[in-house]
Amino acid sequence: xxxxxxxxxxxxxxxxxxxxxxxxxxxxxxxxxxxxxxxxxxxxxxxxxxxxxxxxxxxxxxxxxxxxxxxxxxxxxxxxxxxxxxxxxxxxxxxxxxxxxxxxxxxxxxxxxxxxxxxxxxxxxxxxxxxxxxxxxxxxxxxxxxxxxxxx
Length: 152
Known about the structure:
Oligomer: single chain
CATH superfamily of the largest domain: Jelly Rolls
Radius of gyration: 18 Å
């Protein structure tokens, strides 16, 4: 019975998460509210996502960048999804270095998300007056580093 109940709960949750469904809303009920926040199959540079070879491993990080703080130039060997926390967080300035050396700067406000691709050099900084909190999910492989800093 426990297995049947667990299976039914998982099946219901998966059905509710279907990307073709509208967000479920509730008022004073005990029904969960499931809302898709972000979906992408491309990086900020428009490159199709590619997953690394090896034993799959998902990672989740909470990163807090103080006002004026910066994570220097780096790459990631695996794609990652970045979400700027929607409450009690500042914005994030992402600077991507292009193959010709030019820079593309994008500001992500609280509640916004984006995908960083594998081996795309960039740095991020908090140019605001309060800490920026980001949540990072990495689709990696066991034993693979998350970040590789350039020039260190």
